[in-house]
Amino acid sequence: MLRIVAARFVRDGQDLMAPFSLELGAGQRAHLEQPSARCAMVAARLAAAIVKPTFGAVTVGDFDSRLQPAQAKRLVGFVPRGGFCGSEREFRREIGFRADVWNVERAAMLREAEEILAALRGTPLAPASDAYVRGIALALAPGVQLAVLELPPAGLLEALAALRPALAGVATAVAADRATPAAARLAGSMP
Amino acid sequence: MDAAWLARLCVSLVAGFGLGMLSSRGGAFEDHLSAALAALWFAVGGTLRVDVRDGMYFAAPLYGRQLARAHALVALAGAFGLPLGATLGWALRGAPGNELAPGGFALTLFGAAALSAVVALSATPRSGGARAVYALLAAGAGAVTLIPYFTGLRDAAFAGFAAALLLGFFGLRAFGETLARYDPIG
Fold it and tell me: Which residues of chain A lie closer than 8 angstroms to B63, CB-CB?
């Protein structure tokens, strides 16, 4: 589902994240640790095919993020730090936007997003920020096979996996020991 | 598009309407110049406030050119506020021949505003000096298409509008390229 090979992201001669490789199948999850929050954000966006690696390769499904970014992004549900929507009204508007660009039925997507929203709100792991929960519900459009969580609260990736067992997931985090290079830690796989 | 965007659109419509109603019958040079300057101001200023850096847009499965077209629709809708208001003002003021006849000033004004808005889009993902340079370029590009009209050339409005269409096409392509290369890394 996700294959990252020796990915580096370089701007102005500087690496903006620690290089890493990662391979994930359907239903597998990984916690990707980076030396800083900024590095973790870049790594998450790289895994979500939003930014392209300067060196190395990122493949989502069968699609190379550099050559077929739109096709790769269709399979990814990306949740940025802070979520996407500040209000319920904005949430409904974004559902419409996503249903249109993902080419799925609006009513079905809204129903599914509200189910996810209700399920996440009911878990003790749900983060305090409503915007973040809405961001997750938004990201999981029908057809999404990989969730990428940018600096999520602890345990959220597992809560998500319980809701959608077949979904592959990546969560980025700041390494406790900031001196260590990036480590992609496979957190286990769902049946 | 949000409440602030709608408020700016209303302000530009009202400003255009006021300029149109207050201009002298037959359309004096100064009246048209003030309408042109106001149209460029609203087109560039309004477009600079379009938020193209929202992560949501980049997470969507769209190519840069598709995103560029969507943002251009918003920018153009905002930029047409003043020309539309002015056109209504000229129509209601009476004797609108100089502005609303085929090849009149209204056509030039719409073209210049549209071009400025499209070029100004390339400033939106940038910051600092590059942003200011693109904003000036946008105003300058719009002003260039007004030159034939203000210098009194024959068929000036059509020439200005054609130039705006051509330059606008390249401006939109350049913005699409900018978005395709833009890295939303916070």
Answer: 69-70
Answering whether pTM is above 0.95, one says: no
The number of beta carbons lying within 10 Å of the beta carbon of residue B29 is 9
ipTM passes above 0.90 = no
Burial string for A13-38 (b: 16+ CB within 10 Å, else e) reads eeebbbbbebebeebbbbbbbbbeee
Selection from A173, A157, A154 nearest residue A165 by Cα: A157
Q: Crossing angle for the helix pair A156-163 and A106-121, nearest 10 degrees?
A: 130
Cβ distance B56 to A94 less than 8 Å, yes or no, reads yes
Contact A45 B185 (CB under 8 A): yes
Q: How do residues B74-114 score in pLDDT, each as one tens digit?
A: 999 999 999 999 999 988 987 777 778 787 889 999 999 99
**Distance in Å, alpha carbon of A109 to nearest chain B alpha carbon:** 15
Residue B182: left if φ>0, alpha if ψ -120 to 50, beta else—which one?
Answer: beta
Query: E strand or H helix at B92, and its extent?
Result: helix B81-93
- Can you read off the two tokens belonging to residue B83? 């020309």
